[in-house]
Design goal:
The chain is of the alpha+beta class. It has one domain (3-130). The chain has four helices and eight strands, in the order E-E-E-E-H-H-E-E-H-H-E-E. The protein has helices at 32-36, 41-58, 80-95, 100-110; strands at 8-13, 15-17, 20-22, 25-29, 64-66, 73-78, 113-118, 126-130. The protein has a five-stranded antiparallel β-sheet with strand order 4-1-6-7-8. A hairpin with a 7-residue loop joins strand 7 and strand 8. Helix 3 runs antiparallel to helix 4. It is globular, with a radius of gyration of 14 Å. The two termini are 26 Å apart. The relative contact order is 0.20.
Length: 131
């Protein structure tokens, strides 16, 4: 696998703050072994937790609300070219008022695979296959 073929693991959050949509994200390239693993593992947990810490800091600017229910916090594997070219356009359309269902369908079509991230009290971050 050449570096250009290495997928990226991206955590993203669909949210609303003070009546405005936002879609912050956090990502990193994956090694071949991690890209083939059945679960996003520690890389996925780290990305999600870093993103959640950024959101927590952002809460000082106003109340945050999930904008897409249980599918508001996602982790996806994307090819580099999708990350660079298509994800910014998809993000902009959703932030500008696009339907969440359309965003999810387009993201699922672009992703190599994906997960919803969730947590229950006294349990670690859990990943459920998405869509």
């Amino acid at each position: 696998m050449v570096m250009a073929d290495a997928p990226y693991l991206v955590a993203l959050a669909l949210l609303e703050q003070e009546g405005k949509r936002a879609l912050p994200l956090n990502g990193k390239s994956l090694a071949a072994a991690a890209a083939e693993a059945p679960d996003p593992g520690d890389d996925g947990r780290t990305l999600v937790l870093e993103l959640l810490l950024r959101l927590w800091q952002r809460s000082e600017e106003g109340a945050l609300q999930r904008a897409a229910g249980d599918a508001s916090l996602l982790l996806v594997q994307l090819p580099l070219e999708v990350l660079q070219e298509q994800l910014p356009r998809l993000k902009a359309r959703w932030v500008d008022g696009g339907a969440s269902a359309d965003f999810h369908a387009e993201l699922a079509a672009l992703a190599i695979r994906g997960w919803r991230a969730s947590i229950a009290r006294y349990e670690p971050v859990r990943f459920t296959a998405w869509p």
